[in-house]
Amino acid sequence: MKLIKGATLLSIILVSSHLQAQSKIDLLFKPDSIRKIVEVLASDSMKGRFTGTAESYRAAQFIIDKFSRAGLKPLAGYPDYLMRIKDAWYNVVGAIQGKSKPHEVIIFSAHYDHVGTDATNPYPMAGGLAIPRKGDTIFNGANDNASGVSAIITLAKYFSLKRDNERTICFVAFTGEELGELGSKYFVERCNPDSILAVINFDMIGRKYNNYGHPYLTGVDSSNLIDILNKRLSEFNRNEYGRNFIDLDPFPREHLFERSDNYPFAQKGIPAHTIMATSPKDIYYHNLGDEAKALDYALISKIIKAIAIGAEGLVNGTDTPTRIGRIK
Ligand SMILES: [Zn+2]
Q1: pTM metric for this prediction
Q2: Coil, strand or helix: which one is 273?
Q3: How far is the CA of 8 from the centre of ligand 1 (A)?
Q4: How far apart are CA 252 and CA 10, in angstroms?
Q5: CA of 317 relative to ligand 1 center, distance in Å
Q6: Which of 6, 53, 167, 209 has its CA 20 to 30 A from that of 84?
């Protein structure tokens, strides 16, 4: 009798803590939760997060706060989450150690820098032409790339709540992307490429490139990562995701594979690709109008959730993408 009572009580406690974790996970993926992250990073007070500025440092501190609340740990050999590249230039890095394969690493990344204001933007001709400026001088970079940062923060919280990863998961917010992928180049020179089994980088996931709103992966021909992700999604829920939820890169002539932080990793043979949802010809691209109110948060939510599901085998050690061959 006692035993049964005890067992019943224990199972009630286990069920309710499982439900608590589940409801926390559901909350993470809510479009409103994602919007709150983007609104901070893309606010006017961040002045477009130009690399090396005080505002960029404030953005880094915001990401650090999220990483530390999620329980991420700094990389081995680093006293905190900041990876200093040079004066006031920082990548932000946090990790969840793998349970049985700690030396096998999966990276989720996104750049948090943008082009700043009229005073700093290195590509002034690209911004402000399509949409009247109305006195605005700040390139808020909501889609490019507060949207991607919202993905890595959300995934950091998600995998922290699950805590069942066999491989180490590393979350990286890069600086210096707009100046030539400088943060990711620095990072990759300081790690052993053989230990990194996959990089999923997020860039511009806040606006659709076509009506039906699926994300696409850059450089799909160079590894089988897309097949791994789509197979997982299809097995998880065929009705919702179909067979090929993640699209092939619809803009091969734009060379997007080479234009984000996945590329320095790919050059080392690491299967490293970028998830995108927006056309490089989007009217807000590198434009003053790239503000938080112009994004589709249901879309971002859908994409982050899909990657959380699709990457299940990568983090539990059962899926390993093929390496990338020599890149000219
Ligand atoms: Zn950009």
Answers
A1: 0.93
A2: strand
A3: 55
A4: 56
A5: 33
A6: 167
